[in-house]
């Protein structure tokens, strides 16, 4: 005879029995369809994966973006005087990628003036200019990584961003505009050089400070369209 997973009572209605599974001391009712699938080896279709806590991380944490750390580094670059009490070495010793990239992209945006090719040029100069400074620093005996140079050069574009709106106001005054440009370049170069040029260079500091200064002059020339 054939055994059916249901019974027929005298009134002609079909009833299905409840199947109970003992899981860890608790009984869970299963329907006939569920039992049928399990008996045929298709129980894996009914399994539900538990959510992995690591998959529920916030987007900023997933991308390794620390806004507080970026904000602190911005302040360190904009206020490079040691007397202010900032631990400026964190810009070099704890490099990140997203902060400098945001600064470079923002500088590219304000440098547009209808010349869209400037954006790719600024990003290219940031990457390869930092590579040049890195190679020169290593040749001179400096203990610095490329990621550190990339971060410092990127963050140190902030002074040029600060003077940008001032140049729009005083652009018609050539002498004042030139002084502000020199001030911005010296500010950016000093901020970067004070982080990258350590005591290990000793008497060779000018050999690294000079190309850093030239690099920011070129960045400024891309902004002004010279």
- Record field, number of beta strands: 4
Helix-and-strand structural type: mainly alpha
Count, helices? 10
**pLDDT < 50 runs, ≥5 residues:** 18-28
The neighbouring-strand order within the major sheet is 1-2
What is the helix/strand order? Answer: EEEEHHHHHHHHHH
Q: pLDDT average, as an integer?
A: 75
Could you say which overall geometry the principal axes of the C-alpha atoms support?
A: elongated
Provide the β-strand percentage band: 5-15%
Head-to-tail CA distance between termini: 96 Å
Largest sheet: 2 strands, antiparallel
Task: Work out the radius of gyration.
Answer: 32 Å
Share in helix: 55-70%
InterPro entries: Yip1/4-like, Yip1_dom
Domain Yip1: 86-221
Subcellular location: Golgi apparatus membrane; Golgi apparatus, cis-Golgi network membrane
Function: Involved in the maintenance of the Golgi structure.
């Amino acid at each position: 005879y054939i055994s059916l997973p249901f019974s027929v009572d005298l009134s002609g209605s079909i009833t299905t029995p409840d199947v109970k599974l003992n899981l860890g001391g608790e009984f869970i009712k299963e329907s006939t369809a569920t039992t049928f699938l399990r008996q045929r080896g298709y129980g894996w279709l009914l399994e539900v994966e538990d959510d992995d806590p690591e998959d529920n991380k916030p987007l900023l944490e997933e991308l390794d973006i620390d806004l507080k750390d970026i904000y602190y580094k911005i302040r360190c670059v904009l206020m490079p005087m040691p007397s202010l009490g900032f631990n400026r070495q964190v810009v070099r010793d704890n490099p990140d990628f997203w902060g400098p990239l945001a600064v470079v992209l923002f500088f590219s945006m304000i440098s547009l003036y209808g010349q869209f090719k400037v954006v790719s040029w600024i990003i290219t100069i940031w990457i390869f200019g930092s590579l040049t400074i890195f190679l020169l620093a290593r040749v001179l005996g400096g203990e610095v990584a490329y990621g550190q140079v990339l971060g410092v050069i990127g963050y140190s574009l902030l002074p040029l961003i600060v003077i940008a709106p001032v140049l729009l106001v005083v652009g018609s005054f050539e002498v004042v505009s030139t002084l502000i440009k020199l001030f911005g370049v010296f500010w950016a170069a000093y901020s970067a050089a004070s982080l990258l040029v350590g005591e290990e260079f000793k008497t060779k500091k000018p050999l690294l400070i000079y190309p850093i200064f030239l690099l920011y002059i070129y960045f400024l020339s891309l902004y002004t369209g010279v």
